[in-house]
């Protein structure tokens, strides 16, 4: 069957699509009358890699050090399998009731509303948007730490490893926020493919640099490692071991957090081939690549640093030389997180702006678009409400990051809080409802066992991360530098 025949076959199942396709005046519109999407599984994979291979990879050596050689890789692989499995269930929920010809749902909340009703959508919205806000705060923290690490690396190189090199993070959080305020004026997710591809390249770059430095350190001599990770009595107390183990599980959960934006990513894909098939291909590619990197970075990083692995293996100064290569890696982290921040905040922007337009459709402040010619960029759309609201959001996340700049504990809490509801619970419940799985059937029972097991794991990880945050807060004074 040639391409034109395939398109006709698909359009015959969708009268509105047939009408739009045959009308040359509407050739730039999609099957639902919206702007035509141009994304492919390659661009979707780039979005996924941008969202997944983020700051989570930096803490994996520390997480493996808490869990050891047996539990560490096992937890990593388990999270990757669960994430891929549930992402396939979520991809099939994008159109309803049929995953190929049904009505499009543009956000995670829309998907849940179509399958589980209004109450489920409200719970999903709370979980999703709280998580997205948390991720953007976490990325502000991590980006500033990486920029500061460049200054510290050069300071150590010039003055020696024992020098007091502790520049403040706050100016760099402010710089990161200014960059995000500018980028946030990009109207929607569909215009961000170039930024995600750049960010994905950066994530590969710093992961490979970190991996290469770890391998070089291993060749120079392996540090003490154990099957169960950090040792009680020698490295830490029994209670600290338990809390840090729980926190490590949360860090690994955070490293796989992209379900929060999966539907928004899928909504960038062209309507043909079917979005669910392309999204499954993109998820397989994205999760496979990231799992390989995670296993390598986590395990080789643990071998390099042993039970004393730093919380962030590129900014915790397990490496001092070559300082220029460490600088490049940290610049790559900062560039990557600039793009990743946008991937996670665009759904928030879109949701708030859609609700405001629905509530105040006559407000010119909210609805009026102005065309502005920008040199080298062409004509861009500008909106006053978008400028004010998005600037306020970025500023608020930067302020919260300045008050709570705790890398590992914050990442663990975000991962624990989002993994169960968004990556496991809603995809499974929507599949059961859509496929009409009978209660107490074999499929129903094992899906429920998986769901409840993940709930327990998330609660345990959240407990460990909260304890870590409380410990950090006891000895921290906001807006002061040691």
Automatic annotation (TrEMBL):
<keyword id="KW-1003">Cell membrane</keyword>
<dbReference type="GO" id="GO:0046938">
    <property type="term" value="P:phytochelatin biosynthetic process"/>
</dbReference>
<dbReference type="InterPro" id="IPR013057">
    <property type="entry name" value="AA_transpt_TM"/>
</dbReference>
<feature type="transmembrane region" description="Helical">
    <location>
        <begin position="387"/>
        <end position="404"/>
    </location>
</feature>
<keyword id="KW-0769">Symport</keyword>
<feature type="transmembrane region" description="Helical">
    <location>
        <begin position="70"/>
        <end position="91"/>
    </location>
</feature>
<dbReference type="GO" id="GO:0046872">
    <property type="term" value="F:metal ion binding"/>
</dbReference>
<dbReference type="Pfam" id="PF01490">
    <property type="entry name" value="Aa_trans"/>
</dbReference>
<feature type="transmembrane region" description="Helical">
    <location>
        <begin position="194"/>
        <end position="216"/>
    </location>
</feature>
<feature type="domain" description="Peptidase C83">
    <location>
        <begin position="240"/>
        <end position="477"/>
    </location>
</feature>
<feature type="compositionally biased region" description="Polar residues">
    <location>
        <begin position="1"/>
        <end position="16"/>
    </location>
</feature>
<feature type="transmembrane region" description="Helical">
    <location>
        <begin position="449"/>
        <end position="470"/>
    </location>
</feature>
<keyword id="KW-1133">Transmembrane helix</keyword>
<dbReference type="GO" id="GO:0010038">
    <property type="term" value="P:response to metal ion"/>
</dbReference>
<comment type="similarity">
    <text>Belongs to the amino acid/polyamine transporter 2 family. Amino acid/auxin permease (AAAP) (TC 2.A.18.2) subfamily.</text>
</comment>
<keyword id="KW-0029">Amino-acid transport</keyword>
<feature type="transmembrane region" description="Helical">
    <location>
        <begin position="44"/>
        <end position="64"/>
    </location>
</feature>
<dbReference type="GO" id="GO:0005886">
    <property type="term" value="C:plasma membrane"/>
</dbReference>
<keyword id="KW-0472">Membrane</keyword>
<feature type="transmembrane region" description="Helical">
    <location>
        <begin position="410"/>
        <end position="428"/>
    </location>
</feature>
<feature type="region of interest" description="Disordered">
    <location>
        <begin position="1"/>
        <end position="34"/>
    </location>
</feature>
<feature type="transmembrane region" description="Helical">
    <location>
        <begin position="284"/>
        <end position="304"/>
    </location>
</feature>
<protein>
    <submittedName>
        <fullName>Amino acid permease 1</fullName>
    </submittedName>
</protein>
<dbReference type="GO" id="GO:0015293">
    <property type="term" value="F:symporter activity"/>
</dbReference>
<feature type="transmembrane region" description="Helical">
    <location>
        <begin position="324"/>
        <end position="344"/>
    </location>
</feature>
<feature type="transmembrane region" description="Helical">
    <location>
        <begin position="129"/>
        <end position="150"/>
    </location>
</feature>
<keyword id="KW-0812">Transmembrane</keyword>
<keyword id="KW-0813">Transport</keyword>
<dbReference type="InterPro" id="IPR007719">
    <property type="entry name" value="PCS_N"/>
</dbReference>
<dbReference type="GO" id="GO:0016756">
    <property type="term" value="F:glutathione gamma-glutamylcysteinyltransferase activity"/>
</dbReference>
<dbReference type="GO" id="GO:0006865">
    <property type="term" value="P:amino acid transport"/>
</dbReference>
């Amino acid at each position: 069957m040639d391409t034109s025949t395939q398109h006709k076959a698909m359009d015959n199942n969708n009268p509105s699509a047939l009408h739009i396709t045959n009308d040359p005046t509407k050739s730039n519109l999609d099957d639902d009358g919206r702007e035509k999407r141009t994304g492919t599984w390659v661009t979707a994979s780039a979005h996924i890699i941008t969202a997944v291979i983020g700051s989570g990879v930096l803490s994996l050596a520390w997480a493996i050090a808490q869990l050891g050689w047996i539990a560490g890789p096992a937890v990593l692989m388990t999270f990757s399998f669960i994430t891929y499995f549930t992402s396939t269930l979520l991809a099939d929920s994008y159109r309803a009731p049929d995953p190929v010809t049904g009505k499009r749902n543009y956000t995670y909340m829309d998907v849940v509303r179509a399958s589980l009703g209004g109450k489920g959508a409200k719970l999903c919205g709370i979980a999703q948007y709280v998580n997205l806000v948390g991720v953007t705060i976490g990325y502000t923290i991590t980006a500033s730490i990486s920029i500061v690490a460049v200054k510290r690396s050069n300071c150590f190189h010039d003055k020696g490893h024992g020098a007091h090199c502790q520049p403040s993070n706050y100016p760099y959080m402010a710089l990161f926020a200014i960059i995000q305020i500018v980028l946030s004026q990009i109207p929607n997710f569909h215009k961000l493919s170039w930024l995600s591809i750049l960010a994905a390249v950066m994530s590969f770059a710093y992961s490979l640099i970190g991996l290469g430095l770890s391998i070089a350190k291993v060749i120079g001599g392996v540090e003490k490692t154990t099957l169960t990770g950090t040792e009680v009595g020698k490295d830490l107390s029994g209670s600290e071991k338990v809390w840090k183990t729980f926190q490590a599980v949360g860090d690994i959960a955070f490293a796989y957090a992209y379900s929060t934006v999966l539907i928004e990513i899928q909504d960038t894909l062209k309507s043909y081939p079917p979005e669910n098939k392309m999204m499954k291909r993109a998820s397989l590619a994205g999760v496979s690549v990231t799992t390989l990197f995670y296993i390598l970075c986590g395990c080789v990083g643990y071998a390099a640093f042993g039970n004393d692995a730093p919380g962030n293996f590129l900014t915790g100064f397990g490496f001092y030389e070559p300082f220029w290569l460490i600088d490049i890696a940290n610049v790559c982290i900062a560039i990557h997180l600039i793009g990743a921040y946008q991937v996670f905040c665009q759904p928030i922007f879109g949701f708030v702006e859609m609700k405001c337009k629905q509530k105040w459709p006559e407000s010119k402040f909210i609805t009026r678009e102005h065309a502005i010619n920008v040199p080298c960029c062409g004509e861009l759309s500008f909106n006053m409400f978008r400028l004010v609201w998005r600037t306020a959001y970025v500023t608020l996340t930067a302020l919260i990051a300045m008050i709570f700049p705790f890398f590992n504990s914050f990442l663990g809490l975000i991962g624990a809080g989002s993994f169960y509801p968004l990556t496991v619970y809603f995809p499974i419940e929507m599949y059961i409802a859509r496929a009409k799985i009978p209660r107490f059937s074999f499929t129903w029972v094992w899906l429920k066992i998986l769901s409840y097991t993940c709930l327990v794991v998330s609660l345990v990880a959240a407990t460990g991360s909260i304890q870590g945050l409380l410990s950090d807060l006891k000895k921290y004074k906001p807006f002061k530098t040691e």
